[in-house]
Amino acid sequence: MTSNGGKLPTGFGRLWTAQTVSSLGDGVSHAALPLLALTLTRDPMALAVVTGAGTLPWLLFGVLGGALVDRWDRRRTMWVADTARAALLVIPAAAAVLDVLSIPLLATVAFLLGLGGLFFDTAATAYLPDLLRRDCALLERANSRLRGTQIAASGFVGPPAGSALLALGRAVPLLADAVSFLLSALLVRTLPAMPRPEPEARESLLRQARAGASYVFRDRLLLGLALRPAIGNIAFVAVETVLALFAHDRLGMDAYGFGLLLTAEAAGGLLGAGLASYLGRRLGTGTALTCTAAVEGLAVLGLAAAPNPYLAGLALAGCGAGVGATMVLGPSLRQAIVPAHLMGRVASTSRMLGMCAAPFGAFLGGWLATTYDVRAPLYAAAGLLLAMTAVTASMTDNRRVEAALRAAAPVGV
Asked: Which residues form a coiled coil (predicted)?
């Protein structure tokens, strides 16, 4: 069922490189698009439209996108999505050169990039377990590397690079992102082909999408795995909404110090992603998931009570470590136990739940900070995370995890 000593296939190296290059481009555009919008307007609502447009595809088409991925060849879906995103970025780059760039164009580009990301990410999530033969130990190792390089590329390297490239010209970061998508597409095309899942009985796309969503809600283990990021997003977005204000008013930090605070969180995420596989082996995946969830809640509680920037940075690093480990262990387990023909829909349903929860977190954070004080959202977030830990502990315990892995193992293994 697992093979701790197994080697990752060479095809994984190409997939890893492709996703790293793509994540680097994502980090560039993540910084460049809002800055480009800022050169056009100072209207906060217009800036919010550009920022929020990229998340809309997950809210509108998440489950339907998963159903389509389950019908299509996953490898082809990945390279087509990245090729389309590369071609798309040429349009705003040309508009920047011709000085006809506009907020509606940037918002449209952000939306279509998000739509391409939906198909690429869902297809990659569904392709990986086929490549690694649904071996949970190999999946944990693979996801640890993917998560670690994603944090490094999109969190550490990409945003500063995007800001620096923008200084060379408004089209430069867009073209750099296009090149990253094109390189990713070329690498994905060299991946080994995987057998397509056996087609289901002829059903409408909507019925297949509903079947995938109901599969998550009927299975207590999958539901527990989906609730963690959903409730976690409410808590973390509530914190992010007021974090800059908290750092300035309560900790006396300037913009540079706030950047260091975020760097500490990203560094913790790298550490957590690297330790995830070890924790899963030592504690069992279920217990490890409960522990990382508890660490997240306690770390946010520590952040709320932090009297100085140093302890705040330590708390954020601890929170990042918990999230980094959770984002390796949870998806790896899901990939190991979900049937191939449902993988796209289950993955997209889980991701959509998390994305839908984020706006509630933003509202909660803003309301609590306005009604009480800037620390109130942090205390509320810690309470939510610890309550979520208690509620989902029995849903994702070691006994349930092992039973699911045995049920998913091929006959004779």
From this structure: none
How many angstroms separate the CA atoms of 224 and 217, rounded? 9
pLDDT at 411 over 60: no
Pairwise CA distance, residues 314 & 323, whole Å: 14
Query: Which residue in this structure is represented by tokens 């509680």?
Result: 301
* Nearest alpha-carbon partner for 339 in 70, 124, 95: 70
Is the confidence at residue 341, as pLDDT, over 90?
Answer: no
Nearest to 398 by CA among 224, 229, 233, 231: 224
- Residue 308, SS3? coil
Report residue 318 CA to chain centroid gap.
Answer: 18
H helices of 190-342, in order, are: 205-218, 220-249, 255-283, 285-305, 309-337
Strands (E), 165-245: none
Burial of 53 (0-12, 13-18, 19+ CB in 10 A): buried
Instruction: Show me where the domains of the chain are located.
Output: 10-196, 209-408
Instruction: Kindly report, residue by residue over 112-169, the tens digit of the pLDDT.
Output: 998 998 999 999 999 999 899 888 889 999 999 988 888 777 767 776 777 778 888 8
Superfamily of domain 10-196: MFS general substrate transporter like domains (1.20.1250.20)
CA dihedral in degrees (174, 261, 56, 215; nearest 10)? 120
User: Shortest CA distance to 328 belongs to which of 287, 295, 401, 279?
Assistant: 279
Q: How much is the pLDDT for 264?
A: 87
Residue 100 · residue 91 · CB < 8 Å: no
Place of tokens 């309470």: 383
pTM, rounded to two decimals: 0.82
Asked if residue 186 lies in contact with residue 78, where contact means CB atoms within 8 angstroms, the answer is: no
Q: Helix or strand or coil: residue 222?
A: helix
C-alpha distance from residue 16 to each of 148, 261, 267, 268 (Å): 11, 28, 20, 21
Count Cβ neighbours within 10 Å for each residue of 363-372 and write b for 16 or more, e otherwise: ebbeebbeee
- How far is CA 185 from each of CA 19, 191, 201, 318, rounded to the nearest angstrom? 10, 10, 32, 35
127, 331 Cβ separation under 8 angstroms: no
Which residue has tokens 């209207």?
Answer: 43
Domains 10-196 and 209-408 share a fold: yes
What's the maximum distance between 2 C-alpha atoms anywhere in the chain? Answer: 64
Question: According to CATH, what is the number of the domain 209-408?
Answer: 1.20.1250.20
